[in-house]
Predict the structure.
Amino acid sequence: MLHRFAKLVAGCTVFLVLAGSLVTSTGSGLSVPDWPTTYGWNMFTFPPSKWVGGVFYEHGHRLIASTVGFLTIVLAAWLWRRDPRRWMKRLGGAALGAVILQGVLGGLTVLFLLPAPVSTAHASLAEIFFCMTVAIALFTSPGWLQGDGQVDDAMLRRVATTTTVLIYIQILLGATMRHVGAGLAIPDFPLMFGHIVPDHWDPKIAIHFAHRTGALVATLAILATSAYVWSHHAERHELSRPSALIVVLVFVQIALGAMTVLSRRDVSVNSAHVVCGALVLATSLVITLQSWRVRFAKVDHGLPWDHDVLRDHARLIDEVRLKPDATNTFGAHA
C-alpha cells in the first residue's frame, strides 16, 4: 500500500505540473490577486460559479497544490512510521519541506506581481519536488526492495548522473525563458532568423538560444546514456526499459518544442512541452538511481523490515512468494 500511495502522489504531482504550466501558458498568474485567500474567500469555500476565465486556472492550480500538499503530509508520516530506512524518513521530510516552500514561493509570486526570479524558482522547485515523489515511489517498489545482483558500473553512474544534471539545467533554462517572456524571442524553427545562429542579439534572444542549445546537449547525453545501457546492460530490465522510454520522450519533447514556436505558443502544446520535460527528467532520474542501487543496498543491509510492509509490496508482483522467514531475506537484500 505504501508503494501504491507513493505512486499516487507522484501521479498527482504530474497533474500539478500541468496545472501550473496552464497558469503560465494562459497568462493567468494574477487572475487571483490575493493569497492565501481567493478574492477574500477561504480558498476551499470560493464559489465554483466564480471560477471563470483565468480564475479557473489559477484557483484550480491552488486547489490541486493543496491536495498534493495534504497527500505529501500523509506520505511523510507513513514513511516515518513504517519504513525502517533512516534516509527514507529524511527523504519524506524533505519532500514535505519542499512542497511547503513551493506553496510559499507560489504565494510570493502573486503578492510581488510575478517577478521572474521568484516565478522561475517556483517552477524549478516543482521539478525537484516531482523528482522526490518519483524517487520515493521507486525506493518503496517491490523490485527495489527484493532485487539482488545489482549493477555495479562506475561509468554508468557517471554518465547517467551527468545526463540527469544536464536535463535539469535545461529545464531551468526553459523556466527562465517562459517567465521572462522569451518563448518567441526566436520566432522560427529549426533555423533562427533564417540562420543557423541568430544574426542579432538581445537578452531574450540569448536565453532562447541557450535553451535550444541546451536541448541539443541534453538530447546527445540521453542518447549516449541509453546506448551505453543497451550495449552493456541490455538484460537488466530496470535499466533498459527506462532507457527506451526516455529516448521516445525526448523526441516527443523536441517535437513539442518545435510546435510551441511554430504554433506561436499554443496553450495546449506549450503545457504539454512542460509536462513532457518533467517526465524526461524523472525517467533519467530513475536510470540514475538504478545505477546507484548497489550503493543503497550496502547502506540498507540488515535493516529490520516490517513484515506488513513487505507483504504489501509482495502482492504487487506475481513472482514473489513470501515464506514465513521472508522478512529476514528482504532485509538482507534491501
User: Anything to note?
Assistant: Residues 149-300 form one domain. The radius of gyration is 22 Å.
